[in-house]
Amino acid sequence: KLFFTDYGNAAKVERCDMDGMNRTWIVDSKIEQPTALALDLINKYVYWLDIYLESVEVVDYQGRRRQTITKGRQIRHLCGLAVFENYLYTINSDNLSILRINRYNGTDVQALARLDNAKEIRVYQKRTQAAVRSHACEADPYGMPGGCSHVCLLSSSYKARTCRCRTGFILGSDGKSCK
After folding, report:
1. What gap in Å lies between CA 158 and CA 1, rounded to an integer?
2. Which end of the chain is more exposed for a tag (fewer CB within 10 A), N or C?
3. How many Cβ atoms sit within 10 Å of the Cβ of residue 16?
4. Residue partners of 89: CB distance under 8 A and separation at least 6
């Protein structure tokens, strides 16, 4: 799945398959300017910052069990969001500090370090990397991902795929080759 935020005409948090199909709004009320998003892949939660409403919130992948983690003026200056174990990590763009927020007790906020210039944060740790199982976009005997001549996108599951073409090409009738 692909998760993303939008605060155009109607602010929302959405999800879709990697090929863009099955687009679903998971948060579309009491949301104004969602600017950062982080996923808890193990427990299937979506966290986001709303800098207009000055809040950090969470829902499950279906948009249920919504909770506010923390709220207040300090959220206005946050950018980037990552989750690891019991904490959310973000950047305070006002003083360029890395903040750690307890995701179960939003009042436990600690500044960890300062950076010269940062707008985004990511956590790289072996436990956060999902084990890769065989999937529909694996290279075929000819080295083509999922048998697609240009681009292979996972679809509704790891067993399904959609082929796409680079700009200037169109997909052939076989659904795999580009012309």
Report:
1. 10
2. C
3. 14
4. 81, 82, 83, 98, 99, 100, 101, 112, 121, 123
CA distance 156 to 140: 20
- For the domain covering 131-178, report its CATH number: 2.10.25.10
Predicted TM-score (pTM) of the model is 0.83
What are the pLDDT digits (tens) for 127-139?
A: 666 677 788 899 8
User: Is 146 strand, coil or helix?
Assistant: coil
CB 80 within 8 A of CB 67: no
As a whole number of angstroms, the distance between CA 150 and CA 6 comes to: 29
Domain boundaries, the chain: 2-128, 131-178
Pair of tokens at residue 24: 């679903």
2-128 and 131-178 in the same fold: no
For the domain 2-128, what is the CATH superfamily, name and number? TolB, C-terminal domain (2.120.10.30)
